[in-house]
Fold these 2 entries.
Entry 1:
Amino acid sequence: MLAELLLHPVLVLLVLTNLKLLGSSQPGSCIRATRWQGCLLGLLPFLAHSEDLTWRLAAAGLGTLALKGFVLPSLLSRALRDADTTREVETPAGYIWPLLAAMGAWGLAFWLGEQLPLAHAPSNLLVPAAFFAILSGLFLIAGQKPAVSQVLGFLVLENGVFTFGIGAVPETPVVVELGVLLDLFVAVLVMGIARFHIHGESGRREPDPWPGLKD
Amino acid sequence: MLLALLLIPFLTGLAALVVRPPGLRRALLPAAAAAHSAVCAAAWFHPPAPAGHGWLALDAPGQLFLSLSSGLFLAAACYAVGYLRRETQAATPPEDGLGFEPVPEAIFIGSLLWLLAAMTLVAVSQHFGLLWAAIGATSLAGAPLICFRGCRRSWEATWKYLLVCAVGIALALLGNFFLAVASAGAGAPARSLLLPELLAGAAGLNPVWLKAAFLLLLVGYGARMGLAPMHTWLPDACSEAPSVIFALLSGAVLNGAFLGILRIQQVCGAAGLGGFGRELLVLFGLLSIVVAAICIPGQADYKRLLAYSSVEHMGILALGVGLGGGAGYGAFLHTVSHSLAKAMLFLVAGHILFLCQTQLAAQVRGVRRLDPVAGWLWIAGFFAITGSPPFGLFVSELVILQAAIAQHRWVVVGVYLGGLALIFRGMAGVMLNMAQGEPDPRHARKDRTACLLANAPPLVLGALVLVLGLYLPPGLKEVIREAARLLGGT
């Protein structure tokens, strides 16, 4: 009963962390938001399936808490320090547009939630919250050039997918656990920032004569 | 047998990390490729039994894609031995001085072999979750291969590749979740995501969730496959990756993502929603052809030109499956011909780059004089890839056109023919000029040993594309027909 009562506020907090991410220009602050988001996601299996909690779901929750709440944000923080890109991020989309986009995304998320009714959903906010995270992630990836924002965007997108999976299809074997592969992508992208100082400013490039070209 | 197909490249990939002598390590590539191809060939005569509680099985589409992957890998492995030897001899420090380093050869060879393992898993997966993981694994295994040269541009191209593929893979996972919801029905527990079980219970699938699942899987795997407008990683990655890698990526890995789309289309067809999926495939197919027709003319980099050609051909595959009927048969035939022709062209492009030291088409002249075999292969490859007779792609493109005309889809016919004509003109302007004329002595270099090693694999691939246009072996024809039948075609 308590778990059901807590589920709703947790989902609201998830939405708020996404708003924070969309509105913030400080990488450190954004990473803290994803850290909170990871911790909240770790609670989801315990709150959404408190009555039929299995060892598998509990392990998924604890693993998520550790991975998304601590490991990945810490890696990202370290990568930023190493790459010396902790300064404020310039957002090509400005500061007003992301928030307006967030409002639009929230409306779209609710509309999608209505179009895709989920029988026996643990909360009626689950599907909109998941879609909102996915749309926010896509906006962060598409709207902001710096590599760190793109990784954060992908992390948020992934969190949205996980929110849906753990809430809607917890009983389907293996599939939710496979989501770990997405964390592997995040880890590789973080490694790209850390080791090679990629700033994500590569657009479509025209070829040029390249003396060192090998094949 | 299925486990052997998976374990051969996987374990050899591990061995590549520990074997020290470069010669022996390089020899692992053709050795593993030959063993894999031998087991794969045996599977044509003795169909392997399903394994892993039905999660692994080889049906007609899987057999087709597996054989292509295995055959192309064998050709690429033979080419790669010479390529790696050349690279070591011509090793130069990173040109940008920013701390970028080439990927170690051991990781390159290991990743290449794991790519084959992942491609094999894609072909034999009968579970949507496993298929998803396998397609994700091909993306991860491909990353060190694309940035092998270790300069800033190749790392940035790899970044773009990883990011676009990761987003696609994430959306495809959501599609799998939607499929699980669709299979649950009202209040019932979720069924497994095994393809045979989904097909058997297709009538009970929730249509709304199934449509949403199809859309997400199409977009997600479409990004990996290079369908427009999710194709943006393809030209950048292609221009920066070694050609031997793109021969594999373009000829085999893109097909794996296409197989993912075919699987969900199979489920949609069984659930009575085949028309929904087919219309979307036609739309994305035509869009890809149009994007390629716009981008190919005036393309200055010949490797990027080939990448856009891949976008075009992925569009033709989607269009063929989307039209259904006889076009489904044409699409599978096109898969085979395109894979062989594109792999051949990428291998020749790599050799031209070695000879001329530039990717700019305008600076490449007289390839026929520099290396007559490569020059003629390049010309033949141009005619093959643009669907000219007597090559295999001519037959498959004609079959798809016939189906569109039979269905009175005149807009489709117009866009298809118009796109193909523009692409032919655009590619002719670049590729034929490269083959003819006098070579620029400032760039050109001659190396007869390198020519011999580099020309043999594309020569074999080119011969196969030619044979496919003239004669289709009955066994192959039967498998293509069976694959098309599974998708509701003829």
Entry 2:
Amino acid sequence: MPSNRPGSSGSSPKKKPSTTAAAKKKSSSSERFAERQAAKQQAAQQARRARTRAYGIAAIALVVLVVGALVIVKVAGGGSGSGTVDQASPPAGTPIPAATLTHLQSVPISTFTAAPTSGIITTPQSVNDPALTADGKPDLLYIGAEFCPHCAAERWPLYLALTKFGTFSPDPGKIHSANEDGDVPTFTFYGTTYSSPYFTFTPVEATTNKPDGSGGYTVLQTPTQAQLTLWQDTNGGSFPFVDFGGKVVLPSAQYSFVPLQNLPFSAVAAQVGQNSTQIGADIGASAAQLISTICTSLSHDQPAAVCSAVHGG
Amino acid sequence: MVASVAGLGVAGYLTYEHFTSSSTLACSDNSVVNCLKVTTSSYSSVAGVPVAVLGLVFFAVMLVLQLPPMWRRPEPAVRIGRLAWAVVGLGTVLYLLYAELFSIDAICLWCTAVHVLTLVLFGTTVYATSAYPVLEDVDA
């Protein structure tokens, strides 16, 4: 190994003329040593960089592989969390206790009209569509889906409003929106018949809350071509959609379903009529709007007791 | 930097949609590509904080970390911090992708755009960090 220690160059101290040459030789040796050292360091540095770069590329490749594997497993029909959805709930729902229905139907309209409206986000909107009728009466068309949490929220005020103008037979059952879609307790209008002297009610629950295994939900009811056209032309085919005889439409839910998430049906029902709670206020204020809309667009302000109550007459 | 700006834009849109628009009170159709189903699912927020807001924060911080002056800084804290932030983004994307594919059973194309941008950021950050000389190399 080369050394740069003084006197270690091997030259004789007696040969003074050769001192310069020795110094040159020594200097040259030091330079070669420095060059070799630099080359070694550079090589080590390059190797280190190459190694780091290889790690980086490997990490990127690993991520691409993981993402690709997830997609391939899904496309190949791998696991799905959809099996956790309420399989026990029959399409027409489970019966609601009579006492609960009596409570819901007995809340005075004045309570609804007094409810704070701060939670109301969407209000019914006037339209100029051809008259929507069925059996010679103005028709109230509702298109929703059992998986849909917004429909779940909207059915509460819709049920309350409808019971002021007519009766259901049998009464709607209770369900909840799909687990991965909010798990909101609600009614289902599927399997019910509504009768009113003033208008008809046509509910269409497009799907159940049960996954069909391909990313959607099993079909329950199919809208007629006329309903489909009206629905898609008015709000692009999203749920819920309510059309009040072609005069007024509600293109989405009136209030947020979030406060209702994961609650039992009875807990929400108990808050109906309590304007001091967010849920009670949202449902009550929404019901007041729907009753008012039905009075003006479908029932010709009948029955007078209902419509005068909501209009403050 | 371009990916950070794009991600900031998309995350900003998703955040805006989360807090406004009555159209969010409606469920979209019954198909696999269904943004409303994804953005209103239980996976759309973590501890009450909307995921869209978390995305906005992620891209805002990443934008700062991707600025040229930040790349010129040799401190290990900056280099490792940027890499760690990219890994956090990657982990979140993998979790949300798994949730979309296997729990929600729907895909939101806006969310997918955010996921792709996050993956691009991860890839470029990892590559650039490994390709640029580390501090000890600069000193050497």
